[in-house]
Design a protein that fits this description.
alpha/beta, Trna Endonuclease, Chain: A, domain 1, 2 domains, five-stranded mixed β-sheet, two-stranded parallel ribbon, 10 helices, globular
Length: 261
Amino acid sequence: MNKQNVKALIVGLYLSKFDKVAYEKLNFGNSTTTHSKIGEILSVNPNSIKNMRDEYDPYHPNNRAGWYQRPLRPSRQKVFETFTDLTELALRGVVLDILNQKHDESVLQIIEHISNSNENEAEAGSSNEIIYTSRGITGEKAEKYFQNNWQSHYPDYSNIENKTKDGCGYDFKLIADDNLEKYIEVKGMKNTTGGILLTSKEWEVAIEQTNNFDLFIVSDINESRSVKIITNPAKNLIPKKQVQTVIQVNWTLTSKQINEA
């Protein structure tokens, strides 16, 4: 995949996730005009811009159905997992840099990496390689599954609180009639086997809550959806620490700007 198409995927993700707000902020006009203008800037067919947006639509609460019939290809999924947690303002900044040909070095590296990837390559390398699944498309599907089916797995609990957007180290809190609480971290896997990633915060909560903390793992997320529940993973599992660099958008003010304000 060439770099211009990778850039178009990032723009398509922005249009899908933030929908009307995104079109308004880009200020190119209606959706057709916006796709045409973006296509002109990136030298990409305007219909491709629309199609790339539509590929992400099943994972966002807009009024379009999108391409729900098929899972995302590796390049699309990589863009999704890299940029989906950015706020509207932050992702808009990345998109405007792309459209204005002003690229942050870290974004350029990601674009380069994705463009050099083989679209048809397997999700993992050798058969012995662990497949790690971060929070992204599979994670969101697993969270939706849990929210719709939690009572069948936890019949002793009567109330649920959704914490997926709070960054508190777990996805859901279950509350029993006697006020007993259970903290649930949900993970999804595309395949029947593989590994999972836990953030530092998630592991800290697992250590603190011991038997009140469950890992709820949904594997084969697009097919049979097999569930495995691990209570007190901090006691029963030994994870390997990994240090990673992720996309983070910051805003800087120079000393001159501050002094002249």
